[in-house]
Design brief:
Layout lengths: L1 H14 L3 H14 L1 H11 L9 E3 L2 E3 L3 E3 L12 H4 L4 E7 L12 E4 L4 E4 L8 H13 L8 E5 L9 H15 L5 E5 L14 H15 L4 E5 L5 H13 L4 E4 L18 E4 L3 H15 L5 E4 L5 H10 L3 E4 L1 H6 L3 H10 L1
Helix pairs in contact: 5-6, 6-7, 7-8, 8-9, 10-12
Length: 342
């Protein structure tokens, strides 16, 4: 496939750069060449086979492979990702307040292990800026034909007080409610101090119980970390469902270092191939706990159609990619969809 050949040629150049610089170069280029990139990628990759369209709760997705949050925080390439073949797209994480994130360097490749460590810290232009960008697409009749979700998190400056946290998330919901096709409540990034404490049952129930009614008709998913023990996950899942969330996304990055031989002392969340065994086990626990009551989206170390199929066969309604795309290139999405359809 031409996309795979192009990535084989380009990858050494990108991997010779600092990881964050390469990331910014790619996303910035997609933003600057939006219509051209859409046309080229649409020709080389194209949409998923029609047989793969399915329901994700109330959403109709074009295929089971979606873009995970983190790759396009500010919606710079919103219209390009579907041309690459994604069946749905998740932007963000965005916060109520614009923030620069943590000090650099903060993104590291584990090339031999095909993993990433990041401690970005929710660097983004803020939910008001994302709303402006999405409004331009809505009003210009350029909205993608696949669902576009907004992953929302807590601003670093907001204190860990239940009411303050709730208002912080609500600010982003109110700004994006008329624009987003769905929300994901992110309480699982390890890179914002104290954020993961919101995954405890009672704080999480209070937050989800506040966000869901404020979102109105917009579906609300909740993204969980893989660092729970299995017996801890069940009451968390029950609480999320009891508060009316549409579904669960599992999992985020891990603070553990399974299967890695490099940068073991580097702080931040680990993603990519080393995360897969842990993520798969936790996804299975979430599926068991959810027991079909809400859809579950599996994410964490997926880079092959066999892994995607494994999660779908377990009961996931869909899967998401991020790190796999970095190592396997832009042809990965269409390749997985094509092999799933076959």
């Amino acid at each position: 496939m031409l996309l795979d050949l192009a990535w084989t040629l380009a990858r050494p150049l990108f991997f010779s750069m600092d990881a964050e610089r390469a990331h910014r170069l790619v996303v910035g280029s997609l933003h600057q060449t939006g219509r051209l990139s859409e046309a080229v990628l649409g020709t080389l990759a194209g949409p998923p086979p029609a047989s793969l369209a399915r329901d994700l709760g109330p959403l109709r997705i074009a295929g089971p492979v979606g873009l995970a949050a983190g790759l396009d925080k500010d919606g710079e390439a919103t219209t390009v990702w579907p041309a690459m073949g994604f069946g749905f797209v998740e932007l963000g994480t965005v916060t109520a307040h614009a923030q620069p994130g943590n000090d650099r360097p903060r993104l590291f490749r584990l090339v031999d292990e095909r993993g990433l460590i990041n401690r970005m810290g929710f660097n983004n232009h803020g939910s008001a800026a994302l709303a402006d960008a999405l409004r331009v697409l809505r009003e210009g009749d350029r909205w993608p034909k696949v669902p576009v979700g907004c992953n929302i998190g807590k601003s670093k400056v907001t204190p860990l007080d239940d009411d303050a946290v709730a208002q912080d998330y609500l600010t982003s919901v109110e700004r994006l409610r008329a624009l987003a096709d769905y929300f994901t409540v992110n309480v699982s990034s390890p890179n914002t101090p104290g954020l993961r404490s919101l995954q405890a049952v009672e704080p999480l129930r209070k937050l989800v119980g506040t966000v869901v009614p404020a979102a109105g008709d917009v579906p609300v998913f909740v993204k969980l970390a893989p660092d729970f023990e299995p017996d801890e996950l069940r009451p968390v899942v029950d609480g999320i469902i009891a508060e009316g969330a549409t579904g669960i996304i599992a999992t985020n990055t891990t603070i553990s270092r399974p299967g890695t031989t490099d940068r073991l002392g580097e702080g931040g969340g680990l993603s990519g191939a080393p995360l897969w065994p842990l993520a798969r086990a936790r996804i299975e626990t979430v599926l068991d706990a959810a027991a079909g009551r809400v859809p579950v989206v599996g994410v964490g170390g997926i880079s092959t159609s066999a892994q995607a199929r494994e999660l779908l066969d377990l009961g996931c309604a869909a899967v998401q990619l991020y790190s796999g795309l970095i190592f396997e290139g832009p042809g990965l999405v269409a390749r997985i969809h094509r092999e799933l359809a076959a």
